[in-house]
Design goal:
Blueprint lengths: L3 H14 L16 E5 L2 E4 L4 E4 L2 H4 L8 H11 L13 H13 L6 E5 L2 H17 L8 E5 L8 H6 L17 E3 L5 H14 L4 E6 L3 E2 L5 E2 L2 H13 L3 E5 L23 E4 L11 E5 L1 H5 L20 H14 L2 H20 L6 E7 L2 E6 L11 H11 L2 E2 L6 E4 L7 H21 L1
């Protein structure tokens, strides 16, 4: 077993050279070294272990170190690890596209590859705006998004996110997006949508949304019927609808995609995170043949000019195909149902808890708010207290301010879920005694 000096060496070496994401290094100067993962567990330098209750930022849907996925990536690496995707293609990308489209509504017929969730969203917005531009409808430039939206951290994706701590330093540099009311208040939200569309019917191009669950905004959940009404309004006024399923895709909501709960379907869907089971970075944006054909022209200026060096990387495609192999197994959906049932039973047992407030669930996603004082939101001081408490208990949770949530890998066992529930109850009891 590695000794403690090695552990401290990694911590010190990291602190000397690395700038971590979403980290205030003045407050959190040191990061925990992880040497391996297995299933739901992460292991540190001295074999201390942490139950990964958030699938490492929602990506490892099948758990860590999955041997089948690792084998498929290895096999692909022996064939071709990377090839330019402009003018060339390869079997893993073709197979992945065919398989993804088979699980999406039938009007999705084309797949565009990118490298992560933010860029998948940016591609979706570029598709929508250029769709109208290529037809000479240059006034259709406005975009509608939801209050408390979050769509990523690139400049385009930040523009689509509601003003918050994530994008505050850049507000005067972002393109204009109009935000309608929180969909948890259906009447106000739908009326707000109507008012916007009727005020300038020829100027709106797109409506973008996180279907059913707004993730980084606080795991805010709303009804499919509300989104159906919003999409219907958007379509009646000629807007393209963009579903950001970066988080909600691949079983998270209890179905393949959150859009599967909808009667009205989006025109564009953005996927990432669980797409490769957490093994490789990849994003895709899917659309219809009608949208694709609006870019066909003898004029090269009507091309969708977007790419990156690793577009449709064969290793990432192999990982995604392996992840789909696992997603298509009956046992994976049995595990998903078990997680859903376990969450439901625990949530019902805590309905009247004085601290664990507004317990809510959509499929395998369970969230709650810590009701301590009047303050709420991402900057709530309880965030750091809760994070450190659970780390000391050997559980990785990453609170959104005073909101705690569980997005565990599908391989998690009931007894492992119980460890999380019990820790939540114990933390709430400490808060009750303290506050």
């Amino acid at each position: 077993m590695p000794n403690k000096s090695n552990f401290n060496s990694y911590v010190q070496r990291d602190a000397a050279v690395i700038w971590h994401p979403f980290t205030q290094h003045q407050i959190e100067p040191f990061s925990i070294p992880i040497t391996r993962g297995e299933g739901c567990w992460l292991y540190g330098e001295n074999e201390e272990k942490y139950l990964d209750a958030i699938s490492s930022w929602w990506v490892n849907i099948h758990g860590h170190g999955h041997p089948y996925m690792a084998q498929k990536i290895y096999e692909q690496a022996l064939k071709i690890e990377q090839v330019i995707f402009a003018g060339f293609t390869h079997e893993p990308a073709i197979t992945l596209s065919e398989r993804l489209l088979a699980h999406l509504p039938k009007h999705f017929q084309k797949v565009f590859f990118s490298d992560n969730g933010s860029t998948a969203v940016e591609v979706g917005v570029k598709m929508a705006l250029q769709f109208f531009h290529n037809q000479g409808k240059t006034k259709k430039r406005k975009i509608i998004a939801l209050q408390d939206a979050y769509h990523g951290d690139t400049f385009g994706a930040m523009s689509l996110g509601a003003p918050s701590s994530f994008n505050a330093p850049f507000q005067d540099m972002l393109f204009e997006v109009e935000f309608i009311s929180q969909p948890s208040n259906p009447e106000a939200c739908i009326q707000d949508m109507k008012s916007h569309l009727e005020s300038a019917p020829d100027e709106y191009a797109a409506f973008i949304f996180e279907p059913l669950v707004q993730g980084a905004g606080g795991m805010l959940m709303y009804e499919a019927s509300t989104l159906d009404a919003l999409i219907q309004l958007a379509h009646e006024h000629g807007l393209l609808c963009i579903a950001d399923e970066i988080m909600t895709g691949f079983g998270r909501t209890g179905k393949w995609f959150a859009m599967d709960y909808l009667q009205e379907k989006p025109d564009i869907v953005c996927l990432s995170k669980g797409l490769t089971g957490g093994m490789m970075a990849m994003g895709v944006t899917c659309c219809s043949n009608e949208l694709f054909e609006s870019f066909l022209s003898n004029d090269r200026k009507k091309t969708l000019f977007h790419s990156h060096s690793f577009t449709a990387n064969p290793l990432a495609c192999a990982a995604a195909n392996a992840s789909l192999d696992l997603m298509e197994k009956e046992e994976t959906w049995t595990h998903i149902e078990q997680i859903i049932l376990s969450h439901q039973q625990w949530a019902n047992s805590q309905r009247n808890h004085p601290i664990l407030h507004n317990i809510r669930q959509q499929g395998t996603i369970l969230a709650l708010d810590l009701k301590v004082g009047e303050a709420t939101g991402y900057m709530h001081p309880l965030r750091d207290i809760a994070y450190q408490y659970f780390i000391k208990k050997g559980i990785l949770l990453r609170p959104l301010g005073n909101t705690l949530y569980i997005l565990a890998p599908y391989c998690i066992k009931n007894e492992e879920l119980m460890l999380i529930y019990q820790a939540l109850e114990a933390f709430a009891e400490e808060l009750r005694l303290t506050y």
